[in-house]
Amino acid sequence: MPPSRWVIDGNYASSLPIRLQAADTVIFLDLPSWTCLWGIAQRRLRHRGGQHKDIGVYDRITRDFIRYIRGYRREMAPRVRRLIADHAGNARVMVPGILDYISRSVRPTGNGIATRGDDSVTQDLDHQSSIFRAATEVAKLDISAADADAAGQRAAWSGAIAPGWDIVGNANGGYLLAIAARALAAALGRPDPVTVSAHYFHPGKPGDVTIETQVLKEGRRFSSGTATLLSKGRALLGCIGTFGDLTEASGPEILDQGPPEMPDPGDCLPVVATDTFPPPFMGRIELRLHPEDGQFLLGKRTGQALMRGWFRLRDDEPADTIALLCAADAFPPTAFNADFPVAWTPTIELTVHVRARPAPGWLRCTFATHFVTGGFLEEDGEIWDSTGHLVAQSRQLALVPRG
Question: Could you tell me if residue 255 is inside a domain?
């Protein structure tokens, strides 16, 4: 059986890791519950229930089946996303939103098995990769009444630190913050972080994590809360944040300066991941450094604590506002261009202010350090989207790297 000519559908979570490791393409239909329920209703109207072996339809609708579909995106989808992140490293991951694209790209054969024709699914399918989304996905956990206060303001969430998002074996700080922020956004019922401040306690290793959240305030436009990211009961980071909906963020503008001048991404230096340095994390994102600032990779330093370049997620995955938290900590430390060792630079605290949802495309980023005192340094960052709008600012306090 030639593997490249077969498509296997269905969840079957117990065998999903094996199938993901062997797959060259993964299509995850992350559809709204109402879309799935409408499809079931149409199937019932068309086939009137019962089993139809000639067309492979077994139409049996139960109350548990309906309940499973209604809760799939909340309960099952996060688990599937984590499995994809952990086991589909060699596959192209696609999350289509419109089923018509699949009907044009995948056609049934006489034996009822769908196969790919000469035109590959990956060519015809209007898709969005979801590697970052899968690697930051969370699911709500059931907690006892003793752990939840009377107002239901406390909650717990499961997640995972996915392999490959690390720097020298420790997960990138912005990536860890994105996991915590994903849970806090769900707890607050607001999609976009407006301001988030995180304090880092311990390094994070790949594996399951728990996020404990608490809602502090629910307002008309914004809601605030805290999140603590734990691994095996040990707190890795704690953050406080205010979230809202930046879909139509607007207002008067005063800009003393515009986006930093920078060569096009194709004229900048790509950072290629290795097992050591540059770290594996660079293989999960795309980073292009300004030709002047990237010379430290060749042992040449500018003498100025400055790092500029372009950022985007892999495989054209669109960056949401939570991805901006990752971008704020994705670049090499500014100290690498000053007279300091190229070594581990531990983050003490990271604050990100999100101004707007980014437009699709590359993010233009600049990070600068102005003060190095008492063994600490700060990094002030700006992130501009492809349309020239300021979408985020950041400030990070870190320890000066030691040789």
Answer: no
Q: What angle do CA 19, 97, 22 make, to 5 degrees?
A: 10
Q: How far apart are CA 121 and CA 94, in angstroms?
A: 10
Same domain, 178 and 300: no
**Is the same domain home to 274 and 391?**
yes
Q: What is the CATH number of the domain that holds 181?
A: 3.10.129.10
81: phi > 0 → left, psi -120 to 50 → alpha, else beta; which? alpha
Contact 116, 22 (CB under 8 A): no
**Chunked mean pLDDT (size 10), the chain, 403 residues:** 63 76 78 69 65 62 77 74 72 54 35 31 41 94 66 86 93 98 96 98 96 95 97 97 88 88 95 87 95 88 95 94 98 92 91 97 98 96 97 97 82
| Residue 116 lies inside a defined structural domain of this protein | yes
Q: Are 90 and 138 found together in one domain?
A: no
Enclosing domain of residue 277:
265-399
Is 249 a member of any domain?
no
Considering the domain architecture, whether residues 319 and 379 belong to the same structural domain is answered as yes
Q: Tell whether 115 and 165 lie within a shared domain.
A: no
Structural domain count, the chain? 3
Q: What is the tens place of the pLDDT at every residue in 113-172?
A: 333 333 322 223 233 468 999 999 999 998 765 566 655 689 999 999 999 999 989 999
In 3D space, the residue among 302, 298, 319, 321 whose CA is nearest the CA of residue 361 turns out to be 319
Q: Report the predicted TM-score, pTM, of the whole model to 2 decimal places.
A: 0.70
Q: Pick from 244, 276, 306: which residue ends a domain?
A: 244
260 in any annotated domain? no
